[in-house]
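Objective 1b: paired records.
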Amino acid sequence: MLSTLKKDEIVNLAIEVVIKLVVLGVILFYAFEIIRPFIIPVIWGIIIAVTFSPVLNHLEKKFRIKRSILISIFTLIAILALVVPTYLLSDSVISSSTKLVQHLKEGTLKITPPNESVKQWPLIGEIVYERWSAAASDFESTLLKFQPKVRQYAGSIVSGIGSALGGILQFVVSLIIAAVFLGKSEGSVKLYHAISKRLIGEKGVQWAELSALTIRSVVQGVIGIAMIQAILSFIGMVIIGVPFSWLWAFLVLFLAIIQLPTIIVLGPVIAYVYSYTDPTWATVFAIYSLLVGVSDNFLKPLMLGRGVDIPMLVILLGAIGGMILSGILGLFVGAVGLALAYKLFITWLEEEPQA
């Protein structure tokens, strides 16, 4: 009888534990689904706060300005630097699209015939010259021939623009989150040290400091330089009148983050500029673009004295994987996150096991 009661009690206890675990799991899953859209902005906000915290500390000591004022100025400037160009770019894209649709309806769209030098482009010169000439002579017939592809590309472009605007909004949210962390920097650091010590042990503080150094290294030595190159490329292309400058500038940013030569994008742009503008100005733009392309060689020593000891493959996989997972913001978060994981993993491997 006693054994039977014990078995019944064990069964009831097991059922009770399973029910509690299921209910707890459902609650945690529901809570995770609620906060999931904010995970990437929060992580990027933490990365921004870690990167700029030493800068704000230096400015606070040097100019004796309240930290809250510095954080407000920094956040406001960063948001304006994102929102204003985005507004101008969106207005330009909408205006250009409206004019294009109007010209197509009225049949007044004209395309300038290509220069003979287009034929000299390697590999694609003859094909580009032939199709460009066909579009210049009879644009409507050419458009009808490629109508399915045009619709497909148009849908991709619209989807990309929507994703970009969503990424800008996430950036703004991340900046606000970063401002909160910067305002409570001492408490945030203590909390991170406490969590690290709880997870790792006595070396938790050391690993926390290593994490901060790695984040700053990647942001300054990779993402910061990539943004400078993209902005300089965008300014040059806007001045010389390259269409869709924002798209080529984003590709420059992407290539620079994954540590590939930006000439992959800037080279064809230079060739295109030679096809429609004065050779003198095209040469000036070519020299400017080449300088932008190699600028990382002398920017890295200035922005990061010790260099970034993270393999290019890690940055590449992190950037591409992050972008696939979380869009434009994931491009930055993925590169930093995988680099941090790699650095901590290598540090763990190099440590001698305790007896």
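Objective 1b, second protein:
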Amino acid sequence: MNRRDFLALAGSAPLLAADNGAPTAPVAIAKCPTYGADLTEVMDGMFDKLGGLGRIVRNKTVTVKVNLTGHPALRLKGKALAVTHYTHPATMGSMAHLMHRAGAKRVRFVESAWATGGPLEEYMLDSGWNVRSLLSAAPNVEFENTNALGKGKAYSLLKVGHGGYIFPAFALNHAYEDTDVLVSMAKMKNHATCGITLSMKNMFGTTPAAIYGDDAGEHEPNETPTSGRGAVCHAGKRQPAAIAPAEKDPSSSRNAHYRMPRITVDIVGARPIDLAFIDGIETMAGGEGPWVQGPLAHVTPGILIAGTNPVTTDTVGAAVMGYDPRAPKGAAPFTKCDNTLLLAEAARLGTADLKKIEVAGVTIADALFRFPLV
């Protein structure tokens, strides 16, 4: 069995614990008020509650999908990107350090950088980050912009284990296949289309604009993309470049509130998340970025959440945000969209039932920070 077949099998594997009512993979919550000196120790304690990082990363290549959504020039009331809608470099540095200490062979940070196929390091420098400090956090740290072919020689075709709601498979940058462990490193935020964005929605950005972008070629990828994925993934006005499989049913709803939650679940079904990490130390409420219309605010929940199953982790994350993880469409935060958590549960990727999830560390009640009823 090759890596690609294994990923498809992992994405389709039913969670027997969820079926029989037993607790599923535990989720750890910790209070962490700042990105200061205590951050690494707090993160280490969380991972210990999950059985330790060593059992997950020892002697393995680890790929960490971060969240650098939107152009770096767009800021919320002039605040630093990392305290509103970007992954914070301090959490990245701590993650690399802890993974190296736990025996990881290599740590690769990846993101599909907005409207460019150039090096991720340059994009991060444009965001005001000290890339050298991240490189020094641990040996064998790498960066890859997954918005295009990048350092790979070919795209990887990853099949959706559950068959797919919208797409049966995705053509992705090699980094998502050429790895042993995938970490989704997300921000705790609202989302204008999906209600909330946590570890699963963070994976939406894995799709390369070279193939799924508005300016992608009809047949071949555009390796110098300059636009987002609105036409393909949001509105369904066109299909991806022919190098990738077309969607299953072009006659299905073209509404983004229908499509995006389902595509998110499909992506997680194609490239399963091995470790979900949610940063709620500082973030923003009301939307996923400063371009969103409506009341937006910088907030400081002072919380970190981690788990080895993205559905259970995001379910706990939604509850910490003050939402009912099983809320139907029409109820906050899913006022206009389908509930991604329930779609993932239906695809047998995990449980969205809090009664079946073991929470370690701080309780949900003690971590509660109510986000707006969007």
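Residues 14-18 have pLDDT under 50 and may be disordered. The chain is about 25% helix and 15% strand.
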